[in-house]
Amino acid sequence: MEFVLIAIAILLVGLVLGVSLLVGRGRRTTRLDDDAAAGTTLTRPRPPTPTTEAPPRPSGATASGMGTTAEPDAVSPEAPPEVELPPAAPEPGLVFETPPPSAGRLVRLRSRLARSQSNLGRGLLTVLARERLTEDDWEEVEETLLAADVGVAATQQIVDRLRTQSMVLATASGPELRRLLVRELTAVLGPDLDRSLGVDRHDGRPGIVLVVGVNGAGKTTTVGKIARVLVGDGRSVVLGAADTFRAAAADQLETWGERVGVLTVRGREGADPASVAFDAARTGIEGEVDTVVIDTAGRLHTKGGLMDELGKIKRVVEKVAPVTEVLLVLDATTGQNGVVQARVFTEAVTVTGVVLTKLDGTAKGGIVVSVQRELGIPVKLVGLGEGADDLAPFEPEAFAEALVGGAD
Ligand SMILES: Nc1nc2c(ncn2[C@@H]2O[C@H](COP(=O)(O)OP(=O)(O)OP(=O)(O)O)[C@@H](O)[C@H]2O)c(=O)[nH]1
Ligand SMILES: [Mg+2]
């Protein structure tokens, strides 16, 4: 009897232990799930760096204390139906790339200017190294500059300045000659122009960058590369796929964003681009990100339509936040044609900076000079290849050095 009682007691203790273990496991599982749920923002903008600003929402607009509550409050709380946000859950095992910072990129990428370098840099150095420069030689210098798309006015300036130094040239050593040429090229590249990008938050709202240009110029690629530059420099970013002309355009942009953990706000094919851009801006405001970068279409059924649309995108976005940078993307290989197209854009929106793409594919690196002079807008970024990080902030002296080549 005693034996039976002891057996029952052991059984009861075992049962209690078993149940408590099960409960414990259940709790742990739940906690794990909770953690996973809390950290599901991987494909969304990275959390903003802690600032002195007040709580995120709904009073985010008052955070800066600038009294700018009116504009964000004017935004309708309902999301426009056309805009689709990707699911917040991360794909298992997703690893984001960490792009290199943007500083010093132009120097690292200088070999990409090899075609311009051999035509312009080496061409000029060969002539200038001649012992006594004749009229024919100076004409050759002029032709070399013009052939590299430097433009008439800048060519004249360079030739005039070099001619006044012809006595120096006659006795200059190779490295001295090189230095002189770099100096003169730098001078026509506008070394004092402000090339900073309007990407910073201000008044409690993100910097908003609008990217425009003709089709095929490299807009979407550039938006993707800019996102990488910004992420590499430690900023949080939202992308807006306001090119709703082709469905593939948004996919293309989303792929760029996904690689670095940046959210892309997109619409259905044919959706109103201004509405997508608006929503991207609002998502950026709500997520308190640093910068919103908006890609636009390069082609519509009519040119007039495209320009009207760009104007509308800007106006609509500015209902919630000022556009802080309008970048015009130009394909360097199109030469003067690109400059003519660019003028049409500058009439539709106030362009604040030029991105010159495909400089790796042209022998006419001098286009940077003529684009700036003819448009009166600084070149802020240059595209030097199809690689994800082949976009560099434009630096006149480093560019002149790269064009002349032979420094290393
Ligand atoms: N070699 C080189 N190719 C580039 C550069 N930038 C862009 N491209 C290429 O140019 C092509 C067109 O680029 P996209 O970014 O799709 O051009 P887009 O302006 O968005 O074109 P649409 O959306 O049709 O208006 C792609 O094949 C890019 O890889 C560059 O700096 N160098
Ligand atoms: Mg595109």
Automatic annotation (TrEMBL):
Domain annotation SRP54-type proteins GTP-binding: ranges: 378-391
NCBIfam families listed in its UniProt record: ftsY (TIGR00064)
Membrane topology, as annotated: Peripheral membrane protein
Gene: ftsY
Keywords noted in UniProt: Cell membrane, Cytoplasm, GTP-binding, Hydrolase, Membrane, Nucleotide-binding, Receptor
UniProt cross-references to SMART domains, sorted A to Z: AAA, SRP54, SRP54_N
Organism: Geodermatophilus siccatus
InterPro entries associated with the record: AAA+_ATPase, P-loop_NTPase, Signal_recog_particl_SRP54_hlx, SR_rcpt_FtsY, SRP/SRP_N, SRP54_GTPase_dom, SRP54_N_sf
GO MF, one example: signal recognition particle binding
Function, in words: Involved in targeting and insertion of nascent membrane proteins into the cytoplasmic membrane. Acts as a receptor for the complex formed by the signal recognition particle (SRP) and the ribosome-nascent chain (RNC).
Protein name, per record: Signal recognition particle receptor FtsY
BP terms from Gene Ontology: SRP-dependent cotranslational protein targeting to membrane
Coiled coil: none
Predominant cellular place of this UniProt entry's protein: membrane
